[in-house]
Design goal:
Radius of gyration: 14 Å
Strand content: under 5%
Pfam families: DUF4259
Number of strands: 0
Number of domains: 1
Distance between the termini: 27 Å
């Protein structure tokens, strides 16, 4: 998840899990890996985020963490709508998806997601309209529900 961008870069940033340039760049990185390696790439990424919280904004960004958690959720029961979102942003959505559900990734994904998108987290900062704030919260609530269900 160590995607570095210049602070002066201006790009797309939306309220969906795959609605930013950073999220799309992260998906491209995952797609470069063979399907059987993707779960381990995500596992390492979540571990890195949680162990290196002080590197937020320098080594990784909230939108990348949200996209990574959404990839895990997309492969779990209840994540079908995320597969549809991937199809909208990718010419080849299967090229980035996990080959199947990986329930043991739900807990690390949820922990990393809580760090960047928990109450008052960096994911929630900077939304300029109430509509955007509400949509961003819906994104996180949906991902959290899917990941929690997999942990039950």
């Amino acid at each position: 998840m160590a995607v570095c961008r210049n602070e002066g870069d201006v790009g797309t940033f939306g309220t969906g899990p795959f609605s930013s340039d950073g999220a799309l760049d992260f998906l491209d990185e995952v797609a470069e890996r063979p399907p059987q390696q993707r779960a381990e790439v995500l596992r390492r990424a979540f571990g890195y985020v949680v162990a290196n919280r002080d590197l937020l904004w320098r080594e990784f960004f909230p939108d990348e963490v949200v996209a990574a958690a959404a990839l895990v959720a997309a492969a779990l029961p209840g994540g079908e709508h995320l597969q549809n979102r991937l199809a909208q942003v990718s010419d080849e959505p299967r090229a980035v998806m996990l080959p199947g559900p990986v329930p043991d990734l739900a807990a690390p994904a949820l922990e990393a997601l809580r760090f960047v998108a928990g109450p008052g987290g960096p994911w929630h900062q900077g939304w300029t309209t109430e509509t955007n704030r509400a949509e961003a919260q819906q994104t996180i609530d949906g991902l959290t529900a899917i990941l929690r269900a997999a942990n039950s």
